[in-house]
Specification:
The protein is an alpha+beta fold. A six-stranded antiparallel beta sheet has the order 2-3-1-4-5-6. Strand 4 and strand 5 form a beta hairpin. The longest helix has 8 residues.
Length: 104
């Protein structure tokens, strides 16, 4: 089955003093694992940018992470790079970034 969207990533280095905030909000599709977050989503389209705003506000000084969003309907890959207090997004050519998975 082809999913409209796939989201994968990991965020390491959440601030222990701010972790209680993340425990009170809906993190779906992210899963909290100690001071880290992981995400594996295959399904409906999700706008994760508002949630990324909340997550980067809770990162420790040395925190870092990434999230890749693959939009199958429009054949777009967005790579989010996360640092404490900010995230950036760049569009990646899916044919090049996924090419290694189609090699024999």
């Amino acid at each position: 089955m082809k999913f409209p969207m796939r989201i994968y990533g990991e965020i390491k280095g959440l601030d222990p003093e701010r972790i209680s905030f993340l425990q009170r909000i809906d993190l779906d599709p992210f899963e909290l694992n100690g001071l880290n977050l992981e995400v594996e989503h295959e399904g409906r389209f999700l706008d994760i940018e508002p949630l990324l705003d909340e997550i980067v506000a809770c990162m420790a000084e040395n925190g870092q992470g990434y999230v890749d969003c693959i939009d199958h309907d429009h054949w777009i890959v967005l790579r989010y790079d996360l640092k404490p207090g900010k995230w950036t997004c760049k569009r990646i050519n899916p044919d090049i970034s996924l090419e290694k998975y189609h090699q024999e």
